[in-house]
């Protein structure tokens, strides 16, 4: 299984999408051991003092593909979930300063809490609402209409470089506003189209 993520993929104003589509895309990866499926997550205090949350919709690939066309790209999605992309920001800053890879900042155990998956047929891919509440307070909210690069764009781009295989997961970007620091004891709740799919605590 590959776990891939795309950075800086949402806007707050639809008119900004066309301008930002020409910006260079960047993809990062997380190891399978970073997944935490529908369970509480231990705060990684032994490695970081600054943990940042980002809610993201996650697509699961259902069939193998390479050099996938835009027209067929969405047919490679089998299921959708919601997850959190955690970043150990202090480790990320150090990695950037030393020009080292991001692996430890993005790929530690528990860095990818995720819900169970739902069939892709349940959703209109261009109109999915999703939101994050922390301790009952809404922190992030958006809709897939505000994606700079939609699901198909992401799949086309990735498949130029690597073969996508059944079970691969793609974190498709976080809302443009609201990401921030998470703390031990916080309760996170992620909903998709008003349905609570992920509910866990930092312990």
Structure description:
The protein is an alpha+beta fold and 203 residues long. Helix content is 14%, strand content 33%. It is built from 4 helices and 15 strands. Strands 2-1-12-5-6-9 form a 6-stranded mixed beta sheet, with helices on one face. Strands 11-10-14-15 form a 4-stranded antiparallel beta sheet, with no helix packed on it. The protein has a 3-stranded antiparallel beta sheet with strand order 7-4-13. It is globular and about 45 Å long.
Key words describing this protein structure:
203 residues
Name the beta content range. Answer: 25-35%
| Helix content percent band | 10-25%
Cα radius of gyration in angstroms: 16 Å
Q: What's the pLDDT, averaged over the residues?
A: 97
**N-to-C SSE string, H for helix and E for strand:** EHEEEEEEHHEEEEHEEEE
- Distance from first to last alpha carbon: 27 Å
Number of helices in the DSSP assignment: 4
> What is the strand tally?
15
Low-confidence stretches: none
Major sheet description: 6 strands, mixed
Shape: globular
Q: Please give the order of strands in the largest beta sheet.
A: 2-1-12-5-6-9
Instruction: Specify the structural class.
Output: alpha+beta
Mind sketching the topology for me?
Elements: E1 3-6, H1 17-20, E2 27-30, E3 35-37, E4 51-53, E5 55-61, E6 77-84, E7 87-88, H2 89-98, H3 103-106, E8 112-114, E9 118-119, E10 129-134, E11 137-143, H4 151-161, E12 169-171, E13 180-181, E14 187-192, E15 195-201
Parallel strand pairs: 1-12, 3-8
Antiparallel strand pairs: 1-2, 4-7, 4-13, 5-6, 5-12, 6-9, 10-11, 10-14, 14-15
